[in-house]
């Protein structure tokens, strides 16, 4: 608990009250920061931190005048309704507001998630037999956008009115059936980045691009929510297979999680590992797997002992030394600290 609280305090030094976002990282990363804060409150962080969630809900939608934009704010401005060009960005915010709704029961959070979900539905078409596009320019169908669409739909299938739940469940079933058959899950039960689309041949196949930890992770939480909504035990069996593949192939000999980009992961990938851990924790809530609890404890201890500065700032390489530190690396590492602290 002490480690989690110290890490959150360090994170909040990057928080900008006026924008509701975090300096040194991007718009979608701030959605993950809100999700982590909510999870930390579930784990015992004081609920006074709900004020941060509320402020972000209001401020992160406000259009920032160009004269006031600096750094990352240039591409963040004007995302009213938490919508932008990228369906995966929208999915992160939908999941953040679902989590916030579960914590607070405030209907505006659930309504926002449902509104985002309706926009994401517009990304679906028959190219590759289904699935949503990564962006509204419709040039790439990838794992993360579709995993998030699955996660949002499966999560909303257990929340809201009966009509809302029925529609969401229909989409969740449709998305999971498509994702399973898309080819993005390879023979090692690892999730590659997306699909190679050959329009002249009318074919879509696994592009064999990198296996990122967050692609291996989001599907775990989505399948857990899907199992809860459908009472389908096979979803948890599939999630266990994917989780175990991730732990086998994406950790070092000491059990520490890594992405292939380390130690220079850039603005996006420095966030990925925490997303894997967060979703494995969701799965573990239903499976109660000792191996997963050991993984959480091992990674949290390594972060605190080897990837932390004297200011409690946390780096991208969890085996250390602390490097490439920003709000994104802080949130990612905090996801691991929360997983180790939370009571199942």
From TrEMBL:
Q: Which domain of life is it from?
A: Bacteria
- Identify the Gene3D superfamilies for this entry: 1.50.10.20
The record's Pfam families line, in alphabetical order, gives: Glyco_hydro_76 (PF03663)
Any single GO BP term = carbohydrate metabolic process
Check the record and name the InterPro entries matching this protein.
Answer: 6-hairpin_glycosidase_sf, Glyco_hydro_76, MUG_Protein
Q: Where is the signal peptide?
A: none
This protein is called what? Answer: Predicted alpha-1,6-mannanase, GH76 family
Annotated source species: Terriglobus roseus
